[in-house]
Amino acid sequence: MSTTIITPVEDEECAYCGSRIFDHDPICVRDCTDDCGSPAYFCNYACLSTYIDENNLTTGDSCEWSPDKDNCC
Length: 73
What we know:
This is Homolog to small CPxCG-related zinc finger protein. By secondary structure, the chain is largely without helices or strands. Helices cover about 15% and strands about 10% of the residues. It is built from one helix and two strands.
């Protein structure tokens, strides 16, 4: 799976809060499970984390772990 890396435009806005990403510590995220769609840019980890939580993006995306089970994951 190949992906082209492109620097976003100078006034690119955060996908969560709308702030200019380069005024902060920007993060680029791509969903490569489904054809590596267009990237989403976030101005910092706080916005990315809140976006993930508010959209329930972690639901069902991890294995079930128990200290009593062997060979999980």
